[in-house]
Amino acid sequence: MTLSVALGPDTQESTQTGTATSTDVLSAPDIPWNLVIWNDPVNLMSYVSYVFRSYFGYSEAKANKLMLEVHKKGRSIVAHGSKEQVEQHAVAMHGYGLWATVEQATGGSGGGKGSGKGKGKRG
Amino acid sequence: MAKAFKYGIKGITGYLEPAERELLRSLFDDVVSMLEPEERANQDPLAALVGLDAEAREPSDRALRRLLPSVSKNDAAASLEFRRYTERSLRESKIGALKAASLGLDKDDLVLTPDDARHWSMALNDVRLVLAERLDIRDDEDAGHVHLMQDWSQAEDVESYLALVYNFTTWLQESLVQAMLASLETRG
Domain residues for B117? Predict the structure, then answer.
């Protein structure tokens, strides 16, 4: 992302990673999908934060925290839900021009590696 | 010179010179023509009507691939299937935003409703994504390098011209988003 304005004081980086949830039992079959937003050098930090606030209804603090996580770590999980829900969010994010993918929250069948670590963070 | 967008009593307002409006109009039109789905002879009209496109493929053009990304990082088959159900309507909604922004360019003074502003921010973002691919902006360092190009008298080749256009649209989008954020504060 690209920074054009100074950020407020409440935007220090979080040290937790969103993926670190130590799920004992994810019993509910309709929670195991994540919406992931990936960093890119074009989207404005202000715009990404605006999209998180206006589309998901997140607070300014939460939107900025997620936006900075995308910027600094290369990716961030910004929403969870059923496969259909996160796919719907992904299309909306693509509509805004953000780079979004969906993935299973925990390793599962589904063909791909569920937890899809953002390895090989492409530049 | 364009004036930065700002949020006030009338809503979000801005001002662009005729040459700037002409430039934006052509940028919006260029991206619309990239996004327009090609009509195929054997296309099922009913499927097209409901947004299905059984022939959809991951675009080979890098800029188009950035506008219409794959939904899964490591499951190409799932991405392709998803694309067949969603890509057509994604193209149409992007085209809708670009055309709406383009229509708003008829006057020097811009007064944007919240919907107009959203369309404008999406349209400018898509234009910047395409320009960034043409300029080969791959990381923050590339972006910083392009950002240094600010003087129109230095525009001596296509690349420096594109860089100036990119910086202009970046500045315009940033001012618009700041105005939109200000309007969020007010509306609560």
Answer: 3-41+94-187
For testing contact with chain A, the best of B115, B119, B121 (most A CBs within 10 A): B121
Specify the pLDDT at position B172.
97
Find the CATH number of the domain harbouring A80: 3.30.1390.10
Q: What is the pLDDT of residues A26-43, one digit of tens each?
A: 445 556 899 999 999 999
Q: Quick one: closest CA in B to A49, which residue? A: B181
Quick check: is B155 in a domain?
Answer: yes
- With CA atoms as reference, report the closest residue to A79 among A46, A99, A106, A52: A52
Written as one letter, the residue type at B4 is: A
Tell which B residues from 127 to 156 touch A, by Cβ distance under 8 Å.
Answer: 128-129, 132, 137-140, 142-143, 147
Q: How many domains does chain A have?
A: 1
Query: B130: buried, middle or exposed (CB in 10 Å: 19+, 13-18, 0-12)?
Result: buried
Give a yes or no: residue A93 inside a domain.
yes
User: What is this model's ipTM?
Assistant: 0.92
Instruction: Write out the two tokens for A30.
Output: 């309709």
CB pairs under 8 A between A and B: 101
Q: What's the confidence (pLDDT) of residue B37?
A: 79
- Nearest residue of A to residue B125 by CA position? A97
